[in-house]
Records
---
Amino acid sequence: MNDRTRLISTIQNSIFAKLTLKDTDTHPIENTKLLTSVLKLLHSKYYQTNIDSFPPFILAIDNDSISSCTKTLRPELLEKFYTEDRFNESNFIEISSKNSASIENVKFGNFTVDTPDVLSDISEDNPKIKFFLVRKNTLELFYNGKFISHIQNICNENDSRGYNSRISIINTEDILARYKLYFKSKVDPIYWKNKSQRILSDKPERYLAQVFYFYLDNLIADGKVDTETLSGSQDNKLDIRVVHFFTNKVYIFEVKWIGKSEKTSYLNLKAEERANSGIEQLKIYLEEDFECETCVLILYDGRDLDDPITWVDEENWDKRIHKPPFRLFLESESASVRATRASKLNKN
Amino acid sequence: MNHIPFNNYSRANELLYILNATKREDLDSISKIGIQKVLYLANLLAPVKNVILSTLRFLSYTRGPYAPDVQNTLDQLTANGFVYITTFREFKAKSSVATYSISTAGEAVVNKLTVNPKEDEKKWWFESILKLSAIYSDQPAFLEGGSYSGFDKIVNLVYEDDTFLNVKDNLQFASVINLKREDAPTFTLINFIKNYVSENKLLDNGKNERWNAEIVLIGFFEFLYSKYLDNLSNE
């Protein structure tokens, strides 16, 4: 990556930049100090040693306490919550100038939150507070009702803050090929409600869109990756957009799923209709966004069999629609089980 | 304070701003190395906001960019009671480690000087650079090991600057690093990013110039840190 691309990426995409660009209430350098203090706390020996015992928790930091964050965000803070069993009542650690580190849960009461959706809504009601959702070594930041940024693994700084392995958004094919490998090897299959019966959890699209967004955000070298999928209950906003730094061309990824979930079913003809509705959605985007260079349907396929989709009117699609759409069959068997079955089939 | 015979008042003021910022950041003191690196970064990045600083000649040196004239001014400030030597250790005949802090008299000078808006601008600039240097010397990749400790770890970021590296790699020991040459890598990069930010309206946020300059400054520090991380993973 050349220095110009690296610098633009840093100024737009780093967690430090994203927070300072979206928060006009707090001094930029103070925000940077806060983020560094949070990271240092999570890197602390105490947290890393006891990480398996920590439930998901939320650091709720009031803007008025940021100047003292380096003193407040110490390992002793986590130790206090952990040893006093405070997480049984609430997983919020409130930090404000009045309560330097409250264990009384003054503002949020006895309440436990461990999903981004709910936290996003809480954030909207508390616009002067920064919410850090900590799940083991994953960190997500919300402010003013908006998802700001995330770090998938705070211990792997090369992924989140280095740029060596990043590639250009222009290489859409490579991005999708790499995503297929990444998804199969790295993504936690919590999208299954019942794996053996191939039933997906309720509204799996939110999680699956987020996985793809996180992946792009860590992979793209020369584009700004944006989504609404992590802000509030935006079930209908599942597109992820990447704006190329140097041309301002837009790359759109629309996320859909088919198969059977706890409450909804897209099987057989319904699956075909659902998949093709994704293409219709892309056509609407193309009408609205003249800067769009390429748009891709990301289709997660939870059906029983890995059967192709019959795409309607494919030959007449706008040439900017990526062909074929990116269909990812969701495996519910381990690689070893699949290999054994394939081996038996070969023998027969 | 104009009766004190400083050979360069402007440079003396800048050193007081650095030491004043050190105290405000709750750092006990700052070493010679730390002062040199803050001065280098402040001068290197000055075009971000077109801050005009005193002229310093930085040389490429064993331990990074070094401006020889600074020590004399620091000694004068110490002799006149504006600066304290907090710790001092001598290693060899010509080698020593010292850390410095500002005295109450030095703070009073800073308060008087910054009534002048131009001086206030410089004070803000050095404060910003020092704060960011303190933040970035505390980054996770620097937590364990290394040749430097505490604030001095900022050296690791300075070593990622191409303007310094170009001189260090291509020329002889103790060559002058010209920060403002049209083709100096960081100078060119700053001009590029200023144009990019302006053309793409990245910072049309209604905030003042200092606010937005700080965002760009943070970008540069993070940029250097990301290069450090990438180089670390290539080793």
---
Amino acid sequence: MKSRNISLTTAIFLLIFFFFTANLSAQQGNGSEQTPDYETALKTLLALEQKGIVNADLYNQIGLSYYHQGLMGKAVLYFLRSLRLESNHKEARNNLEYAFSQSLDAELYPQPTFLADLFRKGIDFFSLNTLAIITLIILVLTILCLHWLLQSPHGEEKTVQVMWLLIIGFILVLCSVLLAFKYKDYNNINKAVIIGQMADGCSGPGEEYGNLFTVHAGLIVHISRMDKDWALVTLPNGGAGWVHASVLERVKP
Amino acid sequence: MDIGRFKQIAFLLVLLSGFACLAAQRFQIRAFAEPTIIGKDEQLTFTIEISGEKGFRAETPKVPELKDFVFRNMMTTTSTQFSIINGRMSESLTKSFVFNLLPKRPGNLSIPSFDMVINGKSYNTDVVSVRVLDSSIAGKSPSQQARPYGYGQRMPLFMPDPFDLDLGFEPVGEMSIVAIPDKKSVFVGEPLLVTYRLYTTQPVSALELKEEKDFGGYGKEVYSEPSRLNFETTKFKNQRYQTAVIKTLAISPNRAGVIELPRITAVAQIGRMGLFTQSLQSESVSINVKELPLDNKPPDFTGAVGSIKVSESMEKSLVRIGETLEYRLIISGNGNFNQFSNPEYPAQQSFRIAIPVTENKVQAGVSGTRTIIYTLIPKHEGKYKLPGVSFNWFDPAKESYQSFKSVPNNVEVKQGNVLTYISNVFQKDNIRTLTPFNPKHEYKSSKLFINSPLYWMLTVLFILSLVPSWLYSRNKKLKDTDPDLAAQRSSDKILRKYLKQAEKSAMDYSKEFYPHAEKGLMRYLSDKYHIPHRLSIQEKLYQMRLKGLDEELIQKLEEFLKRCQEARYMPGGFNEQVLSEDLIALKRVIREFTKLSYTRKIFQW
């Protein structure tokens, strides 16, 4: 028994060792000091996008190309598009947060509370596809529990079955709500990004109205209303104003 | 009260009101200069003050020909005063015309008489003498200066401060916006601050900035913009002004030559009530911008100009593979922070250099500190001498290029371990760089599983699987709790199946009606009365008799079964004409059997 434990521990350590060795080798192999031709690469990537390819990695790389060419607005837009497809896309998340840290309007984003941040991370942990599969699996488990409960002999104690059904049923409700929330967010057509270098927010849909604020490229806004070429947007800090639609681009293509 | 006394009182009242009417017609005119002793470059105010009961109308006096003075401007003020004396309320009005005059020469000078029209009648003020000294007397306290008086007998008070007035004010005074650059000659890229000040002799309650006209050749940023006008008194061209900073712009010229600074347009509201407005535009001010010298210009000069200090720091000297190393270049001072790029870290064989991160603590892009953080990721073990970066800038004060050369840093790279990885996991939130740009040639289009029909088909299928399970469980439960009812339902089901076939055969006038009818009927009865299926028809009938079923009903059944046997096996036994009669007989037998234990109607033929 003792020798079995030792072999098991050794095997685990060996596995960890091989895992980290492989990881470090991968890290070492990543680097390239040559400055890429972002302009050409961007053209190629955009051509792929125009072919109808919808891919989180592709969007992330397009975002990076835009960022390196100084187009912060477009970069943020594509990082968001990448995260829209896969909210757990680590690279896109990293790049988006980096872009936020460099944004001129960084102070407009409210600092989330610990719980809010935890909740957001929890939601982002699963992509829409992963969550859909998990929900389906939980549904199957719930149905199996129901079968178990139905087929239990009449008159027998069913506490265990009911308990499992309640637990799995609760997880199913949770997953379903989360899935619905994420799906709604995925289809949100009002989320947009300021792509112009600078945008003036006016008190009405026109240049003749007074200026309320000036925002810069990369700021995420929510479109509340459209009036011809003008959009009423809400800023992350809750402020609202009309901006010309040409400086905006919706995250949902 | 007798009539004589009443007449006396009435007379007195009439007399008093007559005096009151006479008093209403009276007003006082005073003319005075302040101060009466001034320096030759100083300005004085000559005030004509008319005070009396409300109702008089004074026209603005015309300025006579002035030999010894230059007329600058004039403003009027009006004030109303309420007083109650012995229960009687009176309202008095004071109107002042304030002339600002500048003496032409030193000596004893006279301000000539001013003509004026009050309530349609002409009046003249007295000539007022003023002594103008050769030297300035600025700094003398007002008490040291003589206070003359004019037409009125009362000694005048200080001239009311126009900034404290709000009623009946008419803007006639001076007001302008002046752009004041802190340097008149700069180098390309050398930042300068331009302060826009409002100078006014009028009480400005608010100032609205309208437009900022640019002329090109520079980049600009707002350095400071006070939220309110903080007035202070100053002398400008020998005139007392109230002045306040409107805005300060940081200008970074980007081309050589004469460039015109931005001009700002504003609208001032005058008086506390803001009843009057006046549009203003700052004067045109230009500066000279010199080209940066080409001599000794470093090849890696990135455009920094200013009074700059540079320092560096290397995070650590020992690093493991999997960890990162931070090198910081700190640039501080006054300079064109928005116009120079970060110096590149020289490429290293054994380190990957991430895109540097810039942390700015810079005001308006012209003063503060910029920290450039270079993240180095080691690739191989070993001992290395990292060169750091060099940074060059042009110092306008020294009129020469300055250079910062990093001292090489010794760094040792060791093999990574598990702890390295774990510490990296905990440092994930500390975002210092973008991920590498590493595009592929091909990307697979991802599809949303939730939008696929398969997802919803599987969901529905899994949910529907509950239906048979529930039915099975219900039957099972019924068998346990009520076996008779369960048997009855089972037999009903069987009967329904066979009778459907029998009925179909009957409709087709087929001989097959009889086997279906016989089989269905016997299986139904076997299930209903728990008689084993393996028994023969006769044995089943016997069992039924044993169970005490109605003999008449058993006989009817027996007859029907006999009829079936005949139709099936006897030559000429099958007759299409009697088929419908046999079907009716079958229905009758079934109906009577179903009535035996259940009142519920199973078949509705």
